[in-house]
Structures are given as C-alpha cells and as structure tokens.
Design goal:
The protein is built from 2 helices and 2 strands. By secondary structure, the chain is of the alpha+beta class. The protein has one domain.
Length: about 60
C-alpha cells in the first residue's frame, strides 16, 4: 500500500460528500493531522456529530 501524508484540503474534499450524505452537524479533526505533524504512519482522527439514529459502531 502506498501511504502518504494528506493535505488538509485533500481530507476536507474527500469527507465533504460523506458528511453531506449523512447530515453531519459538525466534525473536528484532532491528533497529529490537526497539530501539523502527521507522518506516513499517522491515522486521521475525527470526532463526528450527526443526528443519525441506530447506526451501530464496529
């Protein structure tokens, strides 16, 4: 798998359609991407607030 450090603009562009589809009220990026020191092994940490009911966590 070819990993890279994504730009904040790239992350925003990829997530925006998903957030619209699921009526996300707000989302907060935190962790290394938010602090500006993400590396190729970093994950993308998000806190998402939505009005969805019945969505199971997995």
């Amino acid at each position: 798998m070819n990993k890279s450090v994504y730009s904040l603009e790239y992350i925003k562009n990829k997530l925006s359609p998903v957030f619209l589809l699921y009526n996300v009220k707000s989302a907060v990026l935190f962790g290394s991407y938010a602090k500006g020191y993400a590396t190729e092994s970093s994950d993308i940490d998000l806190l998402v607030d939505s009005n969805l009911k019945g969505l199971k966590f997995f």
